Amino acid sequence: LRMISRRVPVIMENLGLMPRTSKWSLDYLREHTNEWPGMNVLKSAGGDNRYLYYVGAQPDRDMSAFEGAPRQASQDLRMSFEGFLRAARDDPDG
Predict the structure, then answer these.
(1) What is the pTM of this model?
(2) Cβ atoms of residues 60 and 51 within 8 Å
(3) Distance between CA atoms of 50 and 30, rounded to whole angstroms?
(4) 26-33 vs 81-90: helix axis angle to the nearest 10?
């Protein structure tokens, strides 16, 4: 809880919330995501692992106040799962 209160991303394992995800492995995801043209990926700027998650087009909300807001915390990328694995492997900060 300390990490969550500090707003640091965490990975929670073995919660049993989604049993089917227990069979996910890199090989499983490679096999089942090869048809996708690309996934949206957020990459933190610098080595601090902080992300700015922002979706501009939300029909149920007025987001005009945030239009053109700086987005230094993260970089939006679109890549295949295989491209994501390569980028993660080759990242000098990772």
Answers:
(1) 0.52
(2) no
(3) 26
(4) 140
